[in-house]
Amino acid sequence: MKKLLLLFFLFLATMQAQAQASVGTVSLVPHIGYNYSRLAGLSPTECCDDCGLWGAKAGVSVEFQASRLIAVSLGAAYSRQGMGYEFRSWWDYDPSATSKIEERVGYVNFPVMVGAYLFKGFALKAGLQAGVRVSESEVAKKVEIGIPVGASYEYKGLVLDVRYAIGTGLVPTEKGSVDRGRNMVLSFTVGYRIPLGHYKKVGSAAE
User: Fold this and answer.
1) How many helices, marked H, and strands, marked E, lie in the chain?
2) SS3 content of the chain, % helix, strand, coil (to 5)
3) What residues contact residue 24 under an 8 Å CB cut-off, 6+ apart?
4) Contacts for 13 with CB less than 8 Å, ≥ 6 apart
5) Which among 82, 76, 138 has a CA at the least distance from the CA of 105?
6) What pLDDT sits at residue 82?
7) How many CB atoms within 10 Å of residue 63?
8) Sign of CA pseudo-dihedral 81, 56, 72, 142
């Protein structure tokens, strides 16, 4: 992971610095970062405490600056999610003894986001995403619809993003599986805006 971060920042250093995208710009925004996640909605037990796990996240999004205030993006990202279970061994001699089991799950998420720029470089974002599980799990959903909300700040092309995705549980699980958790994921990423071109309305005058 450290090597990936180093290569990513070396790549950023070779790019030309720029401000927030101008109206009509289509951009590619690769990003990398970390998640803090847990699974909600599982049946509780008297001797089990749940806690979150940290995991890597990396992906890319295509963003269109529709107006000075509004941007729309479509993305795809690999996300390492899951949660930890800490069991209190009440039957053991030492009642404070615990053991921890971790459930790490790989997802590919496809978020569609709308961003509202409150001032130059700073945007509040919300949207919908579909998450597809790409690793084995007995407690995580195979497919899930989530609601991501968050904020981002951009400076000279560097995009810092914090986002919280709330699993809705709207997509049913496999037949006979009713005790599956909803993903609750807090993510922190850093990305870089690469302009791909400028969209012109059909019928606009040629320059």
Assistant:
1) 1, 10
2) 5, 60, 35
3) 65, 198, 199, 200
4) none
5) 82
6) 83
7) 22
8) negative
Q: Which residue has the higher pLDDT, 113 or 183?
A: 113
Three-class SS state of 52: coil
Tell me the pLDDT tens digit for each residue of 122-166.
Answer: 999 999 999 999 998 877 888 889 999 999 999 988 999 999 999
CB 185, CB 35: distance < 8 Å:
yes
Structure tokens at 39: 């699974």
Task: Write the pLDDT tens digit of every residue in 17-29.
Answer: 445 577 888 999 9
37-58 residue pLDDT tens: 988 876 655 445 567 889 999 9
Rounded Cα–Cα distance for residues 125 and 72 (Å): 9
Largest CA distance in the chain: 82
Structure tokens at 35: 């998640």
Residue range 184-203, pLDDT digits in tens: 999 999 999 999 888 765 44
DSSP-assigned states of every residue in 129-178: EEEEE-S--SSB-SEEEEEEEEEEEEETTEEEEEEEEEE---S--STT--
List the Cα angle 108/135/105 in 5-degree steps.
75
pLDDT tens per residue, range 173-189: 555 445 577 889 999 99
